[in-house]
Write a structure and sequence with these properties.
By secondary structure, this protein is α+β, with helices and mostly antiparallel strands. It has a domain of about 80 residues. Helices cover about 30% and strands about 25% of the residues. The protein contains three helices and five strands. It has a five-stranded antiparallel beta sheet with strand order 1-2-3-4-5.
């Protein structure tokens, strides 16, 4: 398999992502392959991949969000992260639109067992 080039988020992309991260003491933001991820209990619930912000949701929420214009797969082309949906890029500047889905994602992932450090 050929080497996959990771998309580089711009400073603006990173600022947008950071502005969406919930103010919750259990949330930790970490760099990931030049991008960013937001974690709760060691599990990622929200990520930045190039210009795209993706959220991890249960199936019903993925289906609901996926019906909105501008959403799409999240992650590397041809190998998207299966439980994540990319938020529409047109939502930049509208944190309240993204916030509902980020809150759903945080609640969903916070209910999962903590990820064990290996």
């Amino acid at each position: 398999m050929p080497f996959m080039k990771m998309p580089e988020p711009t400073a603006r992309d990173k600022t947008w992502f950071q502005s969406l991260v919930p103010d919750d003491p259990g949330v930790v933001v970490k760099p990931m392959f030049g991008n960013l991820g937001a974690f709760v209990n060691g599990n990622m619930f929200m990520g930045l991949f190039g210009p795209d912000v993706g959220v991890r949701l249960e199936q019903d929420d993925r289906d609901e969000l996926g019906e909105l214009d501008g959403t799409g797969p999240f992650g590397p082309e041809g190998r998207p992260m299966k439980e994540y949906v990319a938020l529409p890029r047109t939502w930049r500047g509208s944190p309240e639109r993204a916030g509902e889905w980020i809150d759903r994602s945080l609640a969903h992932v916070a209910a999962m067992p903590p990820k064990m450090k290996g």
